[in-house]
Amino acid sequence: MNLQDISIFFAWFIMVYMIIVISFYSVVMLISVIQLRKEYKLDREKSYNDYTEDIYTKPVSIIVPAFNEEAGIVHSIRSLLSINYPVFEIVVVNDGSSDRTMERLIEHYDMKEIQKVIRKQVESNPIKKVYQSQVLPSLFLIDKDNGGKADALNAGLNFSHYPYVCSLDGDSVLERDAFLKVMKPIIDSNEEVIASGGSIRIANGCEIRNGEVLKIGLAKNPLVIMQVIEYLRAFLMGRIGLSRHNLLLIISGAFGVFSKQWVVQAGGYRRDTVGEDMELVVRIHRLLKETRTKKRIVYVPDPVCWTEVPESMKYLRRQRRRWHRGLFESLWIHRKLTFNPKYGPIGFISFPYFWIVEFLGPIVELSGYFYIVISLFAGGIYLEFAILIFLLSCLYGSLFSAFAILLEEWSLRKYPRISDLLKLFFYSLTETIWYRPLTVFWRCQGIWQMLRGETGWGEMKRKGVSE
Amino acid sequence: MIRDEIQFLVTAFTVLSAILIVMLFYLIGRKAAENRLRKRVEGLKRSMNEKMLHSILTGDFLRSLQTDTKVKKLAMEELLSHYAELLEGTEEKVNLNRLAESRLGSHYRKNLRSLKWSTRMNALFHIEAFRMDGLKDEVFRMLERRRVTKEEKLRTLTILSQFQSREMFELLTVKYCGLSYLEFRNILSRLDSGGFDLFVLGYHSCPLELKFAILDLVGMKKDLKYLSFAESVFSASSGEERVRALKALSSIGHVRKLERYLPLFESGNWQERMLTARLAGAMKAEAVLPNLVKLLQDPSWWVRSQAGQAITMFPQGKNILQGVMDETSDTFARDMAWEWINKGVNQS
After folding, report:
1. Same domain, B48 and B160
2. Residue among A55, A132, A406 whose CB faces B24 most closely
3. Do B218 and B301 fall into the same domain?
4. Domain range for residue B132?
5. CB under 8 Å to B254, separation ≥6 — which residues?
6. Which of A85, A277, A398, B324 has a 20 to 30 A CA-CA distance from A325?
């Protein structure tokens, strides 16, 4: 076999890979379209109204891990206090912040130390003190030694009183009805649904005051616009499709509700991974299969949690590297599930999908880009392969994204202006040329860092979403 | 041979892009039309608002309130929804429902027969929100249709229950006896006292899940008139049914002879121990205080917590807990006593 054969074989490999991925995406997309079609123009508000006054609605403990968030914490809590849900408590876990996060909360909400017996159901670092607000009895603050996000969530779990828990990032803003919406599948299914995640939207560019989204808008920064497209695509196409068949492996850490009983039974959040949210979902799935329980994890397209995304290359790169490592850790910890008949579709569809498309995808894509660049110089037959690969990646990147934008406009319609729609559409077509290669490169860097055994993932900088 | 593939992909690419562009134009057109429609609806709502309020408050429906166009229907529907959530008075509610029936009744009748699932569901939502019992027969007929989804059936049953339909007992015990207890409970919770009593009377011919719903609602209603019913169910049943009957009794907060329930402090089921503690706390029976103190050492956190709460219900409760803290060597009991003494603000 000479060099030419090898490079032609390689080109075929990349193409076959892309075709497989494209077909998989198409199937998932089709499922999403069918699902969204059914609920087309359903008056969702009405269907949630049913529960507003329903005293039987399940109470929820909202756990907010906070590490050095003095800039935004008071606003986030204020936004939480105004949510529309009958019974809930807020448990802020101060994870050993070195700034004034805790002092600000204590001053602002008039918090006093209380004595509580805390059941240690999952592992966490020791809790130093517990505070309760004198003005709002359902607001608590836990002070503990630093132990990372998962550790803080576990401490919150141990403390929480209610049968349902929700973890929420300190810098997110919830829509008022978000909880009614995510809890609905749980109530409707008579608790057959044990976890429910909501869709996350990007707050950059929206007008937010005092923790409430006043006006939905689109940021000017191209990086942010591309992330908006990316989120829409992942949520609308990927998760609705996967959720339909109980194959969902991610409930974003930024907004999801879990039945506490199951989280505790699964052992809480794992403290030594950067992808604790995905890892927990996988572990619950695993537990369900191992105990042969018929429960489900779902994704609701509508409820909206607004979160801030990185605006500069530097932080976006860090985020992507970290995500990729988190993905790998979850898959590696539970590698036993891969193609294991005992775990049914999770083992045969979800796991292979996450390994092949999500984890290894960037490597194949990156080599595809290299192939294209090199063949520009080599010419001849290689150039033709390069054109083929390029066309396929346009299909896989740009066209699917453009379709996702149209799907969102057709079904959910969150962006009110026509100019926003046009902007999103045309930006999405450019994805293959610049944004996709960038993220692919960063994710490969993530793999590289992992191989070299680097730990730590750099701190994220926030400017605070609320005015 | 590769050229063929490139040819094919380029064609596919062009076709797909063309489709996407066409869709984009369609959606832009639709968005523009919808933004326009929204503007008109909002304008109309502003001009209709006063007449509407007048009609609802006085019952005198102005002739100028018409719904002959789509925009008017939408504006009327939204205003009515707004007022349906807001108004409290019985007379206003009746006026609102009459207005809804006269102006939107035929619209919803038509929508109930729509081929689109979401249109039918929306019609049901509005019929329920506006309490349009004039459409009862049409709603009832939804149940007899073939190809009706479970969501529609549940909504229909809920509406019939809200209309105090006389067929409820038969429907729920025969044809729809397979629902879950939460679904039953949601349906039954809308019945008035007379309608609900039929279920209490016919309790023994109900499926198990429906029995659970009835017991839960008895607990919610906290009405002493159901006391003997709940007590008799408790003494005649076992397992889950018995626990739920006990739960209802502990919510009512009274039984005729507490002594009969005291052996439950030793029950192997933690829920029974917890519920008995709650019952004893609600009845403030001094004689059982030693039992409650003993439950502070229970292996189950829920039982300990409930026992602590029950003790605080007594006038001398805090002193008793202080005594436990000073004397006991059991760390569980001490922690729990400490917690209930230091409970600054009431937590629900």
Report:
1. yes
2. A406
3. no
4. 42-62+69-165
5. B224, B227, B282, B283
6. A398
Please check whether residue A294 touches B, CB under 8 A. Answer: no
Domain shared by B95 and B138, yes or no: yes
Instruction: For residue range B22-37, list pLDDT tens digits in order.
Output: 999 999 999 999 999 9
Outline where A291-432 has alpha helix (H): 313-333, 344-345, 351-353, 361-378, 380-394, 400-411, 418-429
d(CA A357, CA A353): 5
Q: Is B328 on the interface with A (CB under 8 A)?
A: no
How much is the pLDDT for A225? 95
User: Is B131 among the domain residues?
Assistant: yes
| Burial of A446: CB neighbours in 10 Å, binned 0-12, 13-18, 19+ | buried
Say if residue B157 is in the same domain as residue B49.
yes
Which chain A residue is nearest to residue B216, measuring alpha carbons?
A56
Contact A148, A272 (CB under 8 A): no
- Give the integer Cα–Cα distance in Å for A140 and B344: 12
Q: How many Cβ pairs within 8 Å bridge chains A and B?
A: 109
Sign of the dihedral through C-alpha A355, A361, A362, A364: positive
**pLDDT per position as a tens digit, B73-113:** 999 999 999 898 888 888 888 898 999 998 999 999 999 99
User: What would the two tokens of residue B317 be?
Assistant: 């409760």
CA distance A282 to A337: 10
In this predicted model, what pLDDT tens digit does every residue of A44-96 receive, in sequence order?
Answer: 666 655 554 454 557 899 999 988 888 878 888 888 888 888 888 999 999 99
Asked if A163 has any chain B CB less than 8 Å from its own CB, the reply is no
* B12 in A contact zone (CB under 8 Å): yes
Contact flag A115-B342 (C-beta cutoff 8 Å): yes
SS3 A167: strand
CA-based nearest distance A293→chain B, Å: 18
Q: Which residues, at least 6 apart from B210, have a Cβ–Cβ distance to it below 8 Å? A: B172, B173, B177, B179, B181, B184, B199
Q: Which of A47, A190, A406 sits opposite B125 (nearest CB)?
A: A47
Question: Does B123 map to a domain?
Answer: yes
| Record: contact B220-A55, CB cut-off 8 A | yes
Q: What distances in angstroms separate CA A290 from CA A18, A191, A248, A342, A445, one per listed residue?
A: 34, 19, 17, 8, 35
Asked if the structure places residue B324 within a domain, the reply is yes
What ipTM goes with this model? Answer: 0.84
The answer to whether residue B294 is domain-embedded is yes
Cα separation, A158 vs A173, in Å, equals 24
3-state secondary structure of A213: strand
Closest residue, chain B, to A118 (C-alpha): B335
Rg (CA), chain B: 30
Given this model, what pLDDT does residue A363 score?
94
- CA gap A58, A88 in Å, rounded: 9
Q: Which residues contact B189 (CB under 8 A, 6 or more apart)?
A: B217, B220
